[in-house]
DNA sequence: ATCAGCAAGGTGGTCGGACCACTACCACCC
DNA sequence: GGGTGGTAGTGGTCCGACCACCTTGCTGAT
């Protein structure tokens, strides 16, 4: 049955690898229900405690989903499921690493915006305009931030690459933006932000990918430069 | 002390959030040692089992590091630590999602290669050439793949953005490349790959960022197109 | 005084069992 | 037929014990 236990690493770590392998090999399909914790532990010859730690780890990674009273299921393994952990990176990064993260976001956001200029539908464009208008209609920083996030989220969604959208979502997580925003607003940056968003919107309406790419890159680049200056000071 | 337990979500989930918050707020510095599992569990008013699941989850995320017999420590929270989980995404993605992942890689890899063209040092360039030569000197697919990975790794490192390099590392994880490689080689793609790598190298030597960007984008784009065709067939 | 070697305490790792909270399902009653 | 209750089964939590490993500091010979 089992060939001379490999004995490498902790028992829990082995269980994580085993389950991951089962999914990678297709023995577990997305959405499928796993055996119970007790059965799984017995199958792999370990205690339920260790198996639970493995399951918890894979749950946090977005690979598994535990439903109390029902069972354990494989997620759909879509971009949103697996890349949710990306937000943790943004939340815990500091100093120079934030600039690097912002640089990655600039590259991806500009590409996504360019793609969106070519592919965005009328409905999506209307939604973009809704958030743009809402953003200009209020002075509440909290609300502005929310519509700012939604503005970019709709655009990223219109680009047609869910994986890229999911990464950008993580790179723009609430705490990340809030941290940078705190000081950014105190420099009359709101007016500039509104101008930049308007420029992005114009490029989308004109269906001009290159203009959209430039506008998005400049938009993120502004924040990037500001943050870089902050760190140097 | 504790203000009317929030009682939202599972106990373990709460513990994960609490520890993450401690780090985000700076109460736990990178490299610092945490209290023992037993103490932590007592402090947060939960069992050791639940606390262990929380710690295991954060360990898998690359936030904490447990050293048997010594204690639990916060990692350096560098790009490499936190983005290791990115490899899981690549390993478990399939079908259309692989194409999306490759599209993200094309965007980042071309940018990184362009940056490298401007910033690469003589030593790094020599290392690039070493892997290029080694790649051309053998016909063993396994060895070619290894040098291929190293080739791009050195370039990504020379770009000066560790975060971007770490993401690209995950996007090029062993199993991911191996899976795509399997069928890719059977079409005389090796010769083409060598030509493309040579083109990237020439652009680096010429310190021509735009040429480097184009060469890298074309290189990844080739694989991307091939994979897209495979899925359609 | 120096240092190799050993011993004890502390730490994470594993195990087994017990009980709770919740869900799904089905037989039952109106 | 449609609620209604119960019941078995699931994940969630807790406890206590023991093991494997590291760290520390003492011991003792050199």
UniProtKB/TrEMBL annotation, chains A, B:
Keyword vocabulary terms for this entry: DNA-binding, Transcription, Transcription regulation
Domain of life: Bacteria
Domain HTH gntR-type: 9-77
InterPro entries found in the cross-reference section: GntR_C, TF_FadR/GntR_C, Tscrpt_reg_HTH_GntR, WH-like_DNA-bd_sf, WH_DNA-bd_sf
GO molecular function: DNA binding; DNA-binding transcription factor activity
Record-linked PANTHER family: TRANSCRIPTIONAL REGULATOR, GNTR FAMILY, UXU OPERON TRANSCRIPTIONAL REGULATOR
Protein name (record): FadR/GntR family transcriptional regulator
Source organism: Streptomyces sp. R39
């Amino acid at each position: 049955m089992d060939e001379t236990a490999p004995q490498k690493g902790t028992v829990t770590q082995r269980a994580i690898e085993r389950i991951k392998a089962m999914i990678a090999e297709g023995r577990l399909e997305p959405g499928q229900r796993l055996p119970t914790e007790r059965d799984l532990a017995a199958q792999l010859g370990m205690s339920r405690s260790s198996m639970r730690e493995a399951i918890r780890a894979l749950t946090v990674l977005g690979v598994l989903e535990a439903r109390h009273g029902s069972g354990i299921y494989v997620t759909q393994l879509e971009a949103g499921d697996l890349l949710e952990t990306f937000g943790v990176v943004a939340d815990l990064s500091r100093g120079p690493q934030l600039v690097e993260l912002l640089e990655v976001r600039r590259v991806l956001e500009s590409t996504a915006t360019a793609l969106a200029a070519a592919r965005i539908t009328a409905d999506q464009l209307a939604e973009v305009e809704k958030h743009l208008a809402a953003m200009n209609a209020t002075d509440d920083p909290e609300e502005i931030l929310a519509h700012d996030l939604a503005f970019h989220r709709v655009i990223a969604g219109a680009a047609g690459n869910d994986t890229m959208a999911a990464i950008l979502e993580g790179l723009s997580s609430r705490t990340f933006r809030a941290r940078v925003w705190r000081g950014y607003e105190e420099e009359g940056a709101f007016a500039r932000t509104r101008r930049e968003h308007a420029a992005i919107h114009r490029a989308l309406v004109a269906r001009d990918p290159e203009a959209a790419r430039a506008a998005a890159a400049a938009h993120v680049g502004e924040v990037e430069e500001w943050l870089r200056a902050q760190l140097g000071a």
